[in-house]
Design a protein that fits this description.
355 residues, alpha/beta, Rossmann fold, 2 domains, 6-stranded mixed sheet, 4-stranded parallel sheet, 15 helices
Length: 355
């Protein structure tokens, strides 16, 4: 199986000698979510809904970032860069460090101190990146990256790099390939807003080429404590337990708004409590373990159902952007309370299990 650049080569403008840096990313599953669908129909009173989960947590470094990073790093190699740099809330740093290592490039990472989940930070460390944690937030880290990138000494691989979005659009291609058509609605978390922009780009491209006959409504959901697009203002000190989308000034703000407006969709926010409830539901009812930020898409679908914003007989796809192992602390904090430490005695164990 080839990575996304090989599989979708006809959608790109590079030649036969282009240096593709790949970890066989993409081809992530589109999982039918019957229990989510049943819950949405109960909340909305609608019928005939089909819900699917695009589980991007099964990319090589555990998040959707790999789709864009394969192209951004490949272009960096082509352009003879020796260093790549990014600001990150976690997933970008892990992906950049992995693809940088694969390409033999030095990866430089700037993180907001104390704001990155342990699973993500550990990846970047082991991949050999050079890491600086700043006393500030992601938006300040990205400002520093922009300044350093302007020197020409390093290649920025954040989503302000257009090759990132060109890679991420393949998620939309895969959704359509599996379903045989675009869904009626796509629900997706919104942090820096690159992914909703990229998916819309992909859906439009498939429709423009006649591969699909329709385009979905794009429904993006920010965390309430960092909902810059919803409130139409920069959030100076964004706060949410969903660390991957704790961003107060999205770099792809305009692209997200265009995706919403052109598709007839919406950008809304969900609370941390709603995110946690969806996170728990996905694990306990669907057996799908995503990181909390990813669950914003399903939390958004549940909210839309309660507000009467879903339609009968719709095919709905929720994008789960990262693997639950990225944030083990949240899994322990919000997971099952039915745990105990007991002596090695079958009777006591049976009593605890109520057998």
């Amino acid at each position: 199986m080839a990575g996304i650049l090989e599989r979708y080569r006809q959608f790109y403008d590079f030649g036969d000698n282009f240096p593709i840096i790949s970890l066989e990313e993409g081809n992530t599953p589109l999982i039918p979510a019957c229990n989510v669908g049943d819950a949405v129909m109960q909340k909305s009173g609608k019928t005939g809904l089909k819900v699917f989960l695009k589980f991007e947590g099964l990319n090589p470094t555990g998040s959707f970032k790999d789709r864009g990073m394969t192209y951004a790093v490949s272009r960096a190699v082509q352009e003879k860069h020796t260093h790549i740099i990014c600001a990150s809330t976690g997933n970008t740093s892990a992906s950049a460090a992995a693809y940088g290592a694969r390409a033999g490039l030095k990866t430089l990472i700037i993180l907001p101190s104390g704001k990155v989940a342990l699973g993500k930070l550990s990846q970047a460390i082991l991949y050999g990146a050079s890491i600086v944690e700043i006393d500030g937030n992601f938006d300040q880290a990205l400002d520093i990256v922009r300044e350093l990138g302007s020197t020409g000494k390093v290649c920025i691989v954040n989503s302000i790099n257009p090759y990132r979005l060109q890679g991420q659009k393949t998620g939309a291609f895969e959704v359509c390939d599996v379903l045989g058509e675009a869904p009626d609605d796509l629900f997706i978390p919104v942090g820096n807003a690159g992914n909703i922009t990229a998916y819309w780009m992909g859906f439009k491209e498939y429709a423009d080429k006649g591969i699909t006959q329709k385009r979905p409504r794009m429904n993006g959901y920010e965390a309430e404590g960092s909902a810059a697009i919803v409130f139409n203002r920069k959030i100076e000190n964004p706060e949410t337990l969903a660390t991957a989308i704790r961003i107060g000034n999205p770099a792809s703000w305009d692209g997200a708004v265009a995706a919403r407006d052109e598709s007839g969709g919406r950008i809304d926010s969900v609370t941390d409590d709603e995110i946690v409830a969806a996170y728990q539901f996905l694990a306990a009812r669907e057996g799908v373990f995503c990181e909390p930020s990813s669950a914003a898409s399903v939390a958004g679908l549940f909210k839309a159902a309660e507000l009467g914003q879903v339609q009968d007989n719709a095919t709905i796809v929720c994008v789960l952007t990262g693997n639950g192992l990225k944030d083990p602390d949240s899994a322990i904090k919000f997971g099952s309370p039915e745990r105990a430490q007991l002596p090695a005695d079958a009777g006591q164990v049976a009593e605890f299990f109520r057998l």
